Amino acid sequence: MRNFRKGRLSVARADRSAIHSGGGTILGSKNPGFALVIALSLMAFIVLLLFSVSVMVGVEISTAEKQKYRILARQNALLGVQVAMGDTQVALGLDTRVTATAARRDSDPYDGDDLDETTGALIVDGLDRDRQQWTGVWDAARDAEGYPMTTFRHWLVSGFSNDHVFVEADTDTGSTPFQNPLEILPGPNPVTVGLEEIASRGGFAFWVGDEGVKAKVNLSSSPVVSDSSSPSRFGVGAVDGFDWFDSNQLTEVGRVLNQPSWNLLAIRTGGQGAVDSVAQRFHDVTPYSYGVFANTIDGGLKKDLTTALFDTTDFPIGQVFGPLADLANPLEDVGGPDWDQVRSWVNTSTNSEGALLPREETQTQAGISPLIAAFQIYMVPGWRVVDGLVKLDLYAMPAVVLWNPYNVPIGASDYVVEAASIVPKGVSWDIDDAYIEKIWQGLAYSLSLDENPAGLTTDSGGSLHIGSVSFDTQEEWDHFFNDPAQFRLEGVELEPGEAVVFTPTSPIQEYDLLDPQATLSPGFRPGFAFRIPLTGRDFAYDEDLHDDNPDTYPFTYQLVVKLINNALGLQLYKDSVAPGNLLQTMVRMGNGPEWDLNSGYVQLQRAPGTGPITDLSYGAGFKLVHNYVVNLPFWNSSGARSLPDSYKWLAHFNPRAAHHGPIPVVFEKGNKGTQVNKVSPNPTFSGNFLRGDISNHMQQGFNIAADDQSVSVGSDNNYRSVLFQVSPERGELHSLGQLSQASLFRSPDENTDFKLYDAYDYARFGNQLPAYAIGNGRASPMIPLDQTEVNWTTRYQYTNPNMNFLGVHHDYSYKLNEGLWDRYFFSTLEVEGGGYEPGFDRYVLKESLSPPATMDEVAGNLMIDGPFNVNSTSVDAWKALLASYYYEDVIRSDGTTEVADLVDPESPLLRVDRPVGDAFDSGSENYYSDSAYDGYRVLLPDEIDTLAEKIVEEIKLRGPFASMAEFVNRSPNLDHTNRLAGESVDDFRLQGLLSRAIEKAELNDELRSPGTQTSYSGVPDLIPEVEEGDRSEDLPGWLSQFDLLARLGSVLTTRSDTFRVRAYGEVTDPLTGAKVSTAVCEAVMQRLPEFVDSVGNDPEDDLDSLNPFNESFGRRFVVVDLRWLEDLEI
Asked: Transmembrane segments in this chain: where (predicted)?
């Protein structure tokens, strides 16, 4: 302005000079009106200038005023962030808090039409649409009986008065509206909260969104990872509307840091449609989320089993779960497995040739062994002439099937198989340590003549007992304690999943009673036999009696099998001489009469000189076949056969157990022998006692391949069944669910007070728990559904005092899950360069940690990248979790690779880390397919969709969960009371959530068939609903709950630690009350392992050692991201 004025003044002076030089002045001008015009113009121009200046000043003043209001609005919004952070710190700082959104309160969880897949709009039945994404907080604790429970605490939103008592129903349709409602999050799934006024300044509002219930999108910046054993990322492409996200984005997504960069990736990849899909799935996916390894049910940080079990002597002591406390006799309940046994399993490795070597199971050592899949022994009597005398013999034809159920070979080893009767031991038997070996008795076969055979007389007439055999040197066949039959298997090597049958090597071999270790070799050779001389009488050979038929002796006989009390037993030893290392004991303690399997009086056959035995018309014997087949006929004393079709041989029983025994309830109630004649007392085996023509029975249950030695373990022609693996390598053991592969049991141990005969006394056998116990949430058929153990002593009254079993039988799955899932985790830390590095790429070290670290301190220095809160009710988030193995290759045990399909992805969920066979195709394969037994399961996109929907349905029915163990386990304390009519009374008691969801999704229907169905045995006190099902349950091709937990359990939690605050601030005119400015921001809050007062306590400190401040406020929340939102983003 000043320069402008100077310019005008100089022009005026110049004009005046010019005028004077012309000899005149203005006054003396000849045009006096012109001067007036000029003057007026100048004055108008000056006025215009003054007006312009005033306008400019006004604009600047107005801009400054607006800027001031904007700053005040932002200050109010930041105040909202601070209040939200304070509320969150108070509500969620403690470990014993869990979170979920209001959507879990769906009044009709069966309604599958809640989500509009086109718009992304979610309508939850019974909820206010603007409140269904509110974040709720629940206290986690235990009830009076020790079961997990939750108590509602808080909704993390603004707008309620200070004296408001929060209830879950605050979100329901028709709930009291806010006085000043504010839609803080618009869009297809809006969020409305209440505005909180600031006197004479405006107000603020906030909503705290739970990021842990969403799928994190930016987990991997690496190319496709060729390892399907751990979940490196969420399968974001499985989210509805995310078709634009495929394998090409796996490297790009790692560069996403926040919401703007996530939006940028979307628009660059899929255009505006992709950006719209991101907006529609705001409540399902997130670029933010880290988690703390916290124990939500007991408080404190979880303890690290990686460093504890691999590195140091600082590992858990005692047992995973202990015995009941109120029993006078400690042998009545010995509790669960020792931690030493767990440590033994995780440190199990193969030898230099990649093979396992057998070892005995003890209380401190996990056992490794091939399994006896089948055993049989048939007897045929015969006679021969030796030195003019007729010698009577029994010809024994044994067969043993050994099976390697592991995905690696079992190296060359020698074994001894023993077969005998075993004394049924109850409380009335008093056999001490020195006589434990006397529990075993011989297999007794007896041969009798009919009345007065030609050429023979008896002193008293009637039947003449002429000989017997008991596989030892005792003279009398019925001697009470005799030695068992022994068969030797030498140099046995078994490939993964292979089962091989062993029979006598030569057609006829002598069985040396002084050294009874007859050798069997691979191959099935019917009629190859061991000749065993009968003790008793020899007869003079009379040629005259043979004139008509030189191959028969002219008297008839009866062959009787004597097995006292139906007590057949098998034992498998490692080493060439028994007793060596006892690998497996299998007993069938019965209460019935002696098994007199009479073949009837027939002519005695002359045995061939060199064999093999070809005439099998009049033999007798028995076989035991593992219950992977339909039960074989089992003869009782009256000739009747009554058995259930099958057992759930994996879902309820453990084929790898070191000690296999009967179910005590079989002997409970009824008269002597009643129950034992109804079912096979030992659920591991199907028994088959046969007499008469045995030629049609010798191969029954033995499906033998063309090589005459491989045996099918499974259905018709499945010659390779791979069920288990050894422990993964240290860096690959990331989930407690992988412990499902460990056979853990409080085993009898001769070096402790709990010995083998105590197992018989107290009916404690390892076969009576699931094959995959940890991560399994199913009920046991032997335990009432509303309980987690059964006391044989107090529950049942046995009519035979010899069967009066004592002791406690635990729901092993329930109690192992309870003891592990909330207290421990695997950090996967490996020592590298003098420090630690996690083997699992989603575990992030906060700072340097030097070895050796204690199991207590690791969790204070480690966090999870992208944890997933199992209380999530986002179907799309669950889809992304289940699709975690999209684009992942599968590496087989032989080193070959199944390359992932990058166009039509599927999610492999491996039973073992390096499978032997191929993927089970649920669309075209069934129970009889090889991949059902040696392969693995994959989830296809449509299966993922269905399963995610059913999981969310179950969460709405059962949640929220106070602990991971509660999520994994069945709920013995819950029936359908106050639940929806769509569930039966016992649905929650029968199985865990994931197991039930899999069942509802019908994902295993291809492995069901009429031939696989199991039915109620009819035995009182066995649970019908539990016994019913399918024998095929838990085969490798069967998707089970523990499969999901083994592959995904390492990232699951019941609470969230990352929250996104949407805060709003406004300023009002103090005079008019009109709104003059608004501001919206988003802040990301992250909970850390450190306490609020980090000086007063270390992260790993126990709760009872916390100072009052940390005891009240817990672990610290910090703001890790803050951004102001523009109108378009809002």
From this structure: 34-59
